[in-house]
Design a protein that fits this description.
- This protein is an alpha+beta fold and about 210 residues long.
- The chain folds into 2 domains: about 70 residues; about 130 residues, 2-Layer Sandwich (Beta Polymerase, domain 2), CATH 3.30.460.
- It is globular, with a radius of gyration of 20 Å.
- Helix content is about 45%, strand content about 20%.
- α1 packs across α3.
- The chain starts with 5 loop residues before the first helix and ends with a helix.
- The chain is built from 7 helices and 5 strands.
- The longest helix is centred in the first third of the chain and has 26 residues.
């Protein structure tokens, strides 16, 4: 039996790589999987390639997710995104004393009905946020999130999960000094984009034109 050429093998590998990115994107968009690592491994199982070493990078899944939403969600996703951004703005006004910054899927435009709003707050101590929520009579679950900062440090950030306007919100309480350097985005490895209140207002206004 003749051996397969390297060209044929490479083409097959590339095709599988693309299919894995597309399936991971579909799982994120349709099943609400938020973790890219989980999505790519579940995609490999769905495509009957659980042992593959040909997994896509997170940034490739991000590109595939954008494409998937443009093709298959064009009739509903923009409205869902705009609604989430408007709720984000209300949440930011509520947390205004903590210099809130919007980040994540609601900011980058990939959010859908499964997405939560991600806010970074800046405080002297995380207890300020706990006390503020308790005084405001807003139920929350406190935990921590591990993040990689732009300078390479890996740190634990106090976090709070709550609901505002029937929408899940993840609030992370950074130190004031962390306003000057954003954590690395899990999808791209680059510093996270973060928008303050005025920029979110402008984003909403431009999106509605």
């Amino acid at each position: 039996m003749p051996k397969k050429s390297a060209h044929t093998t490479n083409h097959k590998d590339l095709r599988m790589h693309q299919q894995l990115a597309q399936e991971a994107a579909r799982l994120i968009a349709e099943e609400g999987i938020k973790d890219f690592h989980i999505a790519k491994h579940k995609a490999a199982e769905r495509l009957h390639a659980p042992q593959t070493h040909n997994l896509p990078r997170n940034d490739e899944i991000q590109v595939a997710l954008n494409q998937y939403q443009r093709i298959f969600k064009a009739d509903i996703q923009p409205q869902q995104l705009q609604q989430l951004r408007q709720i984000s703005l209300k949440a930011m006004r509520f947390f205004q004393q903590f210099e809130p910054r919007l980040t994540g899927a609601v900011l980058d435009g990939t959010a859908n009905e499964f997405s939560e709003i991600n806010l970074h707050l800046f405080v002297d101590t995380s207890e300020e946020v706990s006390l503020f929520l308790l005084n405001s009579k807003i139920p929350f679950e406190q935990s921590s999130q591990k993040v990689s900062m732009s300078n390479g440090d890996a740190i634990e950030i106090p976090s709070y999960r709550l609901e505002m306007y029937d929408t899940p919100v993840l609030v992370m309480a950074f130190k004031h000094k962390d306003l000057r350097q954003a954590p690395r985005c899990p999808a791209t490895g680059k510093p996270m984009q973060r928008f303050g209140l005025n920029k979110v207002e402008e984003l909403i206004r431009l999106s509605s034109i």
